[in-house]
């Protein structure tokens, strides 16, 4: 299998960036072309040529560290050489977002191929700069932290590349891209692309990835699947894995980006549960759901999930974003995002237990409670303080 070529732009010194490059190449799937930034116009000229043969672009968030020109001046005296070295140094006066914007524009105009643009940085820089600038979030397909590079990071980059390649081939064939008949879905999701003659691939990719794959709604992740079935997936992993492989494979999402983002179609999960039990999933509590699954299938070792501490309901439908444990959304507290969920999306939730016991994690993740739940939270806090 040939490697995917990735152009990586970072202003840090090589003793810092080469270890990142080596980590990204460790599985043999990626060929990382590591570079320091030029001034804006020169960098654009380089990228226009380089990206024609690349599969993805990785940008460091802050590219404005001092740089040096490529050419060296030899045979000079030490004073003259020092003066020339000082002249060669220059200050890059841009960061990743404006460069990404130009790359997206050039791709829309057909000057360069449309490919994933991935942001990388340190935790502090993402928190202090990027997370506050909502306007630039849609320019990047995904963000990873440099200190957290592992095999999952690599696999997600590969999945993004594969998704773009599929979308470039089947740009307006949404049924192929999503792995199911698009007519079965909410037509509002991709409607703007149906009437456009040649929509940019990165726009389609953004809507599919950020409006369908990442949020809970049409698709659900494995933790949410377990919550809705009422099962504690961590107590008997082998039984759980065999159970979902046997009975819920028909509900599995196999569209673009599925190789690294494990998802299930929510409506099909409901249908499968009803086929097995002849009952409506949402109308039952966790004990009833699991009892029926044990009764109607060969998986007798499924274990009911217990409520999160400080909660009582087992009418699970979502998870706490901090503990990843199941919760009843009527007990949980909605998380405020950069915008309200779209009609086909759910809110994300956090539990009172996480709020009371894990304030550092909440701060680290930038979680804020939705204004509509602040009064109720204040009342609940008084009960436990």
TrEMBL record:
Amino acid composition bias (Basic and acidic residues), ranges on this chain: 76-87
Region (Disordered): 68-87
Source organism, top-level taxon: Bacteria
Protein name stated in the entry: Uncharacterized protein
Organism: Urechidicola croceus
